[in-house]
From TrEMBL, chain A:
This is Cytochrome C oxidase, cbb3-type, subunit III. The chain crosses the membrane at residues 31-51. Keywords: Electron transport, Heme, Iron, Membrane, Metal-binding, Transmembrane, Transmembrane helix, Transport. One of its GO terms (molecular function) is heme binding. Residues 79-169 form the Cytochrome c domain. Residues 1-24 are annotated as: Disordered. The keyword Transport applies. The keyword Electron transport applies.
UniProtKB/TrEMBL annotation, chain B:
Residues 44-184 form the Cytochrome c domain. Transmembrane segments: none annotated. The lineage of its organism: Bacteria, Pseudomonadati, Pseudomonadota, Gammaproteobacteria, Oceanospirillales. PROSITE patterns: CYTC. This is Cytochrome c oxidase cbb3-type subunit 2. Keywords: Heme, Iron, Metal-binding. GO terms for molecular function: electron transfer activity; heme binding; metal ion binding. Gene3D superfamilies: Cytochrome c-like domain. InterPro entries: Cyt_c-like_dom (IPR009056), Cyt_c-like_dom_sf (IPR036909), Cyt_c_oxidase_monohaem-su/FixO (IPR003468).
From TrEMBL, chain C:
It holds the Pfam family COX1. GO terms for biological process: electron transport coupled proton transport; oxidative phosphorylation; respiratory electron transport chain. It comes from Modicisalibacter ilicicola DSM 19980. The lineage of its organism: Bacteria, Pseudomonadati, Pseudomonadota, Gammaproteobacteria, Oceanospirillales. Keywords: Electron transport, Membrane, Respiratory chain, Transmembrane, Transmembrane helix, Transport. This is Cytochrome c oxidase cbb3-type subunit 1.
Amino acid sequence: MTQKRKAERRIKSVAGTSNKNFDPHESYNPIPWQVIAIALALAAWGIITLATTREMAESEPEVTQGTGADERLSKAVDAEMSDGRQLFVTNCSTCHQNNGSGIEAAVPPLAGSRYVLAEPEVPASIVLFGIQGEIEVAGDTYRGRMPTFGNELNDEQIASILSYVRNSWGNQASAIEAGLVAEQRRRFAERTTPWAGGAALAETFGIPATSRPTASVATSEESH
Amino acid sequence: MNRVLPLIVVALAILAFATLLLVAGPAAQIRSIDPPEGLAPYTAAELRGRNEYISLGCVYCHSQQPRSPEQAPDVLRGWGRPSTAADYVYDEPHLLGTMRTGPDLLNAGARLPSRAWQLTHLYQPRAIVPQSIMPAFPFLFEAKEQAAQGDVVVKVPARHRPEGKVIVARQEALDLVDYLLSLDRTYPAERTDLRDNGFMAQEEDS
Amino acid sequence: MNFTIGTLLAFSFAASLIAIAALIWAISTHQFRITESDARTVFGDEEGGKLDDPTSPHSDSHPSAVDPALSPEWRRLLIVMFVTATAWLVFGSIFGLIASLKLHLPDWLTGSAALTFGRMRTMHLNSVIYGFLSLGGVGAALWLVPTLFKTHLHKPRLAMLGAVIWNLAVFAGVIVIGAGWNDGLEWLEIPWQIDIFLAIGGACFAIPLLYTAAARRVNHIYVTGWYYLGGLVWFPVLFLLANLPGVHSGAQQATTNWWFAHNVLGLWLTPLGLGAAYYFIPKIIGKPIYSYRLSLLGFWALALFYSQVGMHHLIGGPVPTWVVSLSVVQSVMMVVPVVAVAINQHTLSLGNLWAWRESLPLRFVALGAILYTLASLQGSLEAVRAFNTVTHFTHYTVAHAHLGAYGFVALVLFGGIYYMLPRVTGRAWPMPWAISLHFWLVVAGFAVYFISLTIGGWLQGLAMLDATRDWLASMEVTLPYLAGRSLGGALMTLGHLVFAANLAVLFFGRTRRFEDDSDDVATPATATSTGA
């Protein structure tokens, strides 16, 4: 006990002195009890930490599958990202940009796009399966590939994104119900590949692949 | 502490113990696993692209290891399910990375499958994401007066390319994009015991 | 495997705890045959009790001549080590500054692959770690080990060969990284074909030091010697195991990678820095460290705990939970040796603040030692899962790495070189004001650097964890702090140029030799010298 006190006093006096001639050295300095206390406390913490993670280390937990939605995730989405804007920012804005402008010469714009503003079944089917092939939007031709979102997003999420896109950046079109997305899913249940560009969409939905010569067919060409 | 040899022997013994635990231990567990069914070995072009990725130091800004939803919202960002050791059986060297100055890329191919997008983005990231701080890699491309037969022309907005020229991808750029597009671990996870599940424990505690 | 992971884990941690308990018991009950008077080994027969600093006009001791024990070969070797280390520092700083600027000026210098961020950053890291810090640290060892053992350096020509091979290997490594050839592993980028030469060069340093240790003329090995001997045997093993070509792959390679990368700091640069600090602080102040026995705990606990650290770089990643948890716990246990070292070094340096005012080398070394304590405590905190979730993948970690490698090891080396070179060359520093300028530039620069990146990294981590914010927000929030880092880095680089200029004038300028004005002070025969 006296040694402990001595050590404490020693530390205090050493830390507090600015005396040139003070010599902190002495013949025997024990390990300060504080050091041992710290070591013991950390060891106890370590044992507890290892004990709690041990179970996890030996288990094979269920890990979220696919790139997207599992049950836990859907709950999180409902709670935090229910609105279409958040879902759009997460899933679409990397390419189509936050303002729906797309990228010059690489990604088609969504603002004023006749595919976006067409009958609800068209944009819903595009989001479900993606696009690979030539497509003309607002007078420019794009040759990109849009990912397939049918596996990543559920019907409500797709409906929510589309309702947002169809009513943003000057777009004005009807909101889309989850039921309609589900309907498209059933309708194209056999489909495994993305739509092969504007031509495939023209074939399936009757929306013209080009807006230039006879644009009068499209319902929403006012913006051009 | 007055003799050299015992000091060295004990110091080495401690290191040998650590090696056994941290090098040999995980190796015994991880190296015996089978490749997942959904994971294909890299093709020759993808491997060339992977070397380009290594050579340009992409790993210093991009991780390839999505975290679990219990820990971070990686899944919500579209980066993919939490990865396990089985997802990396063909990776040599590993490219897990420790920085996210850029987004995680383990599922870049599934998330951004367009070759045109990738090429434009490599030539000038700011043509696609105006606020991006990713380096531009113009040296992977060639600016030509006119594209020749078989050239892959890259769509670049006029303000981002030399006037009157077309941008053509060199082989390095095509290989790199091949590699990026191959990054797809969307098949079901295997060996979920071989990942850090320490956060699930905390989740259950709280 | 016929044992469970849980028992393995329990066994490994229990082994470390038993070892540390045995160590504390042994120290407390005088099982080690060392006494507190061994702490005075740093002083010569008539030294101690006075300020010893060749840069201070008020120094009580007069390093009036070049150390007589230094043979010409030995002296030339030390000069080569310190000069090339400084050259690597300058190159490394410029690479680092360019890399830093590129993060907020992404369209600057995009014309060449060698100048892209990924290569500049890597050339920076390899220049400063294997060039500056390793050469400077080993250079200090090549002077300190013989000096402490009161003998001369054995086989100095072999060490000189090592200096040449090592420098050429680092040079080749940095060049090929710039050209696009690297092994793809952080901290192990230099291709293994070139690593062979680093290993040969390293052996050429180790063998003379081991010969010198074997031929020592004092019974006791001072604590500095423990760290140097430890580092000298640990680093080759780590380097060889991690570099074995064709052995490691996939997620398993990641464990080896980070075990190595963390141990380059823990079992190589830390021993080099701590060994030097354990010598220079008491030597300059003229008083022994607080508790010599405590330094035993500091050394062996470092060996025990640091060697099992590193997997916390893979928290949340695709490696087994147990190996991550083990590293987390051992990282936190590192507090024990850090506190031991802190008590020893800081009670002495902070208890003698007058010496901080008098001695610039001490300022560098003692501040470096304090930053070691802070970096280590921060490191333990960063290993804890809850904290790591925020800082992982962010610039916070970069700030931390620089606190350890720069704040600690580089500052200690600066101080050490300022102290050693006048004794090695027999010349006084030609521009004493430049030492002070160097100190304030790098301290101010590093403060700006560290604070910027720490705040920016933390905000980046918070943004990345916030599911309601776009990922891009986590990048955009860092931009002003990345610019701040460039400012700090520019000040540090400027400080390094001042340092290099002072060094250049020392060798090539008309500088005062100590002999010139020593006649009226002391004759060389009676002059105090560390090697006598």
